[in-house]
């Protein structure tokens, strides 16, 4: 009887060990992916990358480029440090005043439009509130510099600020082309040089030659 019990006990132990080894092997075996699953996941990752790239448009690129553009402007009059300064493209008069140390106590702040955008080669004059006669002359200079689209010296049209009516005065430019120029300017910003106007729809080199000596960028 004892011999039979020993044999049965041995068999139970062997079966138990065998089951334990089989279960352990199944649990530790690495998961295999078939070719179809690998292909699907690979394509999914590629599509995600393509979608990300499609989010970059021309406007993003332009705005990114504008961050690195610089302009040179001068500020005179009633600021603490009048001088010539290098500013970021898109800066406003308020930014320039801060860079110049701020207004003096005599500055006529009411005559300054601090929200106005600066352009390359601008010269801003801050008036003395105690000098009314000088203020009138300085205001005329500032207005001529920042608002005029015509150059009194050479009678040229500034294509960065010209109205539709002013653009239509140019040889070969009708209402449709003038609208194209304004639309391009609103979407892409100011022209950096006269030749950039050929980027506008319906304006080629031949058309540019007709009025090249009558336009400028400021």
Structural description of this entry:
By secondary structure, this protein is mainly alpha-helical. Among the domains are: 64-147, Roll (Ubiquitin-like (UB roll)), CATH 3.10.20; 157-216, DNA polymerase, domain 1 (Orthogonal Bundle), CATH 1.10.150.320. Helices cover 48% and strands 10% of the residues. It has helices spanning 2-28, 35-54, 58-66, 93-99, 132-147, 164-167, 175-188, 205-211; strands at residues 70-77, 83-88, 123-126, 157-158, 215-216. The strands form 2 sheets. Strands 2-1-3 form a 3-stranded mixed β-sheet. The chain starts with a helix and ends with a strand. InterPro entries: Competence_ComEA_HhH (IPR004509), Endo/Exo/Phosphatase_dom_1 (IPR051675), Hlx-hairpin-Hlx_DNA-bd_motif (IPR003583), RuvA_2-like (IPR010994), Soluble_ligand-bd (IPR019554). The chain crosses the membrane at residues 7-27. Residues 165-184, 195-214 form the Helix-hairpin-helix DNA-binding motif class domain. This is Competence protein.
Structural topology:
Elements: H1 2-28, H2 35-54, H3 58-66, E1 70-77, E2 83-88, H4 93-99, E3 123-126, H5 132-147, E4 157-158, H6 164-167, H7 175-188, H8 205-211, E5 215-216
Parallel strand pairs: 1-3, 4-5
Antiparallel strand pairs: 1-2
